[in-house]
Amino acid sequence: MQIDEFLELTKKRRTIRRFKPDPVPDECIEKMLEAARFAQSGGNAQPWEFIVVKDKETKKRIVELVAEAHRYNWDIEKTRVEELRHPAYRGEGRHGEPTVTFGDAPVFISGVRGPQEGTGHCHRGALHNSRRRPLCPFPEEYS
Predict the structure, then answer these.
(1) How far is Cα of residue 105 from the mean position of the Cα atoms in its chain?
(2) What are the angstrom distances between the C-alpha of 119 and each of 40, 116, 132?
(3) pTM
(4) Count of domains in the chain?
(5) CA torsion 79→81→82→88, rounded to 10°?
(6) What is the pLDDT of residue 124?
(7) Domain residues for 112?
(8) What is the DSSP letter of 124?
(9) Quick check: 48 and 133 in contact, CB under 8 A?
(10) Ranges of H-type helices in the chain
C-alpha cells in the first residue's frame, strides 16, 4: 500500500455508535484480530492478547460494568471546575448521565495485556476494580 492510499484510508475512518444486529462472520473477526496482532509496540513485543465476546449476557454484564465506571467518573468530574474537567464532561446539557455507546455491537473485541509474569490487566478499568472483579467476564489471569 502506498502512503497516499494509507492516508486516504485513515481519513475515511469513522467511529460507529449504532450497530446492525447482524452477526459478524468469524472470518471478519479473524482478519480484525490479525490486523490488531501486528500493531506496533515497543521492541515489537506485541504484549497483548484479545478476547472476543459474542454471548449476549456476557456483553450485557460488560456494558453494566462500564456504565458504572462512567457514572463514577462523571461524579468525580462534576466536582471540578468546568474548565478543568475532561473535555467529554464539560457542559451539563451535553452529557448528564453518561452512556455506553457500544452496547448493541454484535461482538466485543477487547485488547488485554497478556498474562505474562503478572502484568496482565483488563483492558477496561471498569472491569478491573476489585469490587467488580467477581463480575468481570474475563479470565482471572487478566485481572
Answers:
(1) 12
(2) 19, 6, 19
(3) 0.66
(4) 1
(5) -50
(6) 46
(7) 3-142
(8) S
(9) no
(10) 3-12, 26-37, 56-78, 92-95, 125-128
